[in-house]
Amino acid sequence: MKTIYLCDSSIEGILSGVYTAWASKKGHDNVMLRLKDDGVTMELFCQYEEVAIDSLKADKVIGAIRSKISEEAYEVVYKAALSKDMERADKIYRFLIAGFYVGASVINMLQNQAVYDIFQMCRFVDNETHLLTGFVRFSEMEGELLVSQIGPKNDVIVLLAPHFADRLSGENWVLYDVNRKKAVLHPAFRHWYLTDFLPPQWEDKITKTTKEDEYEDLFRRFRKSISIKERTNPICQLNHMPLRYRPYMPEFSQGLKDV
């Protein structure tokens, strides 16, 4: 009978599941990892076990990846854990099976399905992170606080944080992921930190200052005044700036059709 381990969607939760599945010694073909909230119907003739987050177990897996495979392998595992792929836990497990068998060269073995799956997840995460470095917009709030809201498909907020910590090192800013209800907080000239604990109704308190609204209106008017109707190319615009990013960009706050 196959055993399915249900783990938390965080990197610590997934690696805790990897440790538990491996330590069970039931055989890799007889175990499977799934996320607790993946929404998939339970399978017949399978035994389900819930895996609690265990930082010690996760750290042991991380140490083994770094020493027995490579630092690069850990980086791709970490990045894959940020993917929106609901099967990422088991795909990471299959990748590690191959990695612990062949070592550091596993990174280049794209003919292996497990490696290819990890490569694809990392590519999607990297692409979205790259796009958001250009699409993120900060609005000035009361108290000279800069706030930006994003709604990414992948959990890329921790990958974006270093970029803006470098670009806006002297500013107090908040980068908020509305889909996952977590935020990066950056005090001026200090290190940023990640939190999923926010005051009640925090989103309702995000109100723009009058000055910021004026700049947004000026930007929209400028964009409209320089546009050439005969050269409008909606397909090209969508390729360079997909619609799903625009609700979080102040210059599009008056509607998505004004492009």
Layout of helices and strands:
Elements (H helix, E strand, L loop, with lengths): L1 E6 L3 H13 L7 E5 L10 E5 L4 H14 L2 H11 L6 H15 L10 H23 L3 E3 L3 E6 L6 H11 L5 E5 L4 E5 L6 E3 L14 H17 L7 H7 L19
Parallel strand pairs: 1-2, 1-3, 5-6
Antiparallel strand pairs: 4-5, 6-7, 7-8
Helix pairs in contact: 1-2, 1-4, 2-3, 3-4, 3-5, 4-5
Number of helices: 8
Structural category: alpha/beta
| Pattern of helices and strands | EHEEHHHHEEHEEEHH
Give the strand line-up of the largest sheet: 4-5-6-7-8
What would the principal axes of the Cα set say about the shape?
Answer: elongated
Number of strands: 8
Q: Give start-end ranges of low-pLDDT stretches.
A: 255-259
User: How much helix, percentage-wise, in residues?
Assistant: 40-55%
Biggest β-sheet strands, sense, barrel: 5 strands, mixed
Which whole number gives the mean pLDDT?
Answer: 87
Strand coverage percent:
5-15%
Computed CA radius of gyration, to the nearest angstrom: 22 Å
First-to-last CA distance: 56 Å
Number of domains: 3
Summarize this entry quickly:
This protein is an alpha/beta fold.
Supply database-style keywords.
three-stranded parallel beta sheet; alpha/beta; 259 residues; disordered C terminus; five-stranded mixed beta sheet; 3 domains; 8 helices; elongated
